[in-house]
Amino acid sequence: MTLVPLGPNQIAFLLHGAVWTVVLSLIACLGGGALGMVVALCRVAPLRAVRAAAAVYIQAVQGTPPLVAMFLLYFGLPGLGLNVPSLLAASLALIVNVSAFLGEIWRGCIESVPRPQWEAAECLALSRTQRMLRVILPQAVRIAIPPTVGFSVQVIKNTSLASVVGFVELARAGQIVNNSVFQPFLIYLLIAAIYFAMCFPLSWLNRVLERRTGGWRRRPAALTAAIPVVSA
Amino acid sequence: MSFDFSSVFDQWPLFLHGALLTLELSVVATVAGFVIGTACALALRAGGVLGGICQVYVEAIRNTPLLVQIFLMYFGLASLGFHLSAFVVASLSLTVNVGAYTAEIMRAGLEATPAGQIEAGECLGLSHVQIYRHVLLLPAMERVYPSLASQFVLLMLASSVTSQISAEELTAAANYVQSATFRPFETFILLAALYVALSLVMRLGFAALAFVLFPRRRRLRMATA
Amino acid sequence: MSDTPIIELRDVQKSFGTLKVLDGVSFAVARGQVAVLIGRSGSGKSTALRCIDRLERIDAGEITVCGHRLADPKLELRALRQDVGIVFQSYNLFPHLTVEQNVTLAPMAVKRVPRAEARATARDVLARVGLADKAAAYPEQLSGGQQQRAAIARSLAMQPKVMLFDEVTSALDPELTAEVLRVLEQLAASGMTMVLVTHEMGFARRIADLLVFMHGGKVREMGPAGILSDPQTIELRQFVSHELAHAGQ
Predict the structure, then answer these.
(1) What ipTM did this prediction achieve?
(2) Average pLDDT over every residue of B206-220
(3) Residue C118's closest CA among C107, C131, C110, C129?
(4) I need a surface site. Which of B112, C43, C89, C209 has the fewest CB within 10 A?
(5) Chains with ≥3 CB–CB distances under 8 Å to C
(6) C49 sits in which H/E element
(7) Which residues in chain A are contacts of C139 at CB distance < 8 A?
């Protein structure tokens, strides 16, 4: 085996992998977010059967390691004659995983909108959909932002599991580079540092958002200053 | 397409062995990780140099993937001359990983200790150890118990990643079964079901443990039932 | 004043678990009348009010509101809510919307009123409650009294046939209470049919066409405001003297 030193080519390859980590994270967050919204709405649906089905979905998905979901899609489906490319298998597994966790997080946010708000909307003769869209969700979104940002860190880290089905993202790129330079300590430390650079800002943002107990004004402070605030 | 679970079910001793190892890994990492995490949480609370070091540890672990941590510990340490067995690395890395999460959860629990509780303990003449145990740690643990339990269940699921350094736990067992039976779909469906079952078992275990650990809550629940 | 009542409760029964909160409540309110429910806390008056807007289901008896029979399984809940406005003790304005958006939301969403018209209505009802200059403010920028008046405006914008008020001044200090009560009196003078639950006895005496005194889930006395000066039951006598003692403080 001829070892090559860690040079610009290897670094470029790692950064290329990092780009795919970002892409995969975005796919997982957007796809999982859309599906998670459906799951959350099903969890608060008026029909008991719908709520129960969503609860079973959440339990099943949260009880299955994302790694196993990837194995099932990538190695399992070919057993049934369905060949799935690694990017698709990894994306689907992550989307399903994210949807169950975000669905449960968002259900909590929806339910934490105070009961009287639901009642007031009902008493104004708004339909169920209108109540949800115009009154409850706008308030739930505010509550949901910090935990959702926090969870996105989890998503980025979970994309590393796509390496086991051969998709070349950051972790897999690290393995490949290591196979040629064989400096595992250095390479994996470098990989960890790149993940850290992606995750830490979000962790930090999550903490800042959680600490900020903001009011409801949406406009910037400069504008609100113009409106006289009445002191009771 | 036809399903054939029977050839997969025939391998049940392998699955059982794998499941037991997964549980063993999880229990070791949960207990050791809880001790480390709690110690870290106390250090974080105290601040100073030790607190700073713990802060770095917690952030480093929480912002990097477990898979990379495992690779670093297995291949990285080996290249530096520390050759550890897969099972040791698996236990170590899971412990180090869950320790960081425990630290963060317990820190939140400790922060919620009402002011005056410690003074009250001191006034009663409790020793330092007694104050730590009865006034700080147990109430903090009771406050964050649901988060801790969820974290430890997630840890059990995450232990599947150690199959990548061929630790012989459940996922590795399934990998072996699917290569022997050529029934990957059935194997991984069964594997997923086993993990769901294991997580339910763990949840029940934690509920039972809470029953023993927190007699006050038990009495409250009975009073409201 | 028409003879057929616009709100009628007949022998209404309601329990929360084993606790009986309404035990055969009957009363009727005619069009344009102002009915005031009084009684100690826990007497069932707020529950009775909430039953009128079907926020609580009743166990037995009958309630008819604006022609809607509330026990009817085919009841059009949203039609009922268009005819009935309700204002709560805790205002319950939508915090993410401005005062004007709070007021225009339901007319635009439910009645499909065009935006310009809804805004004109909003200006009108906000002027009636004295908040013409607060249309662009968010609820958290208003005092309690202003929030409560905005909540009244929000209900008025739907042009309900009946308005219900559930202890709308209980969370306010006296100064702010006065400004809300003034709005209620103007509203009564304009001919709105109203049912109020309140602890403000002086106000109740001034505004009520019909006083309903509840105690232990039952209506113990009912009649014009004069019943306060000549209580027939020991419960009302105790209640009146207790309230007077409080007012004297």
Answers:
(1) 0.90
(2) 80
(3) C107
(4) B112
(5) A
(6) helix C45-52
(7) 216
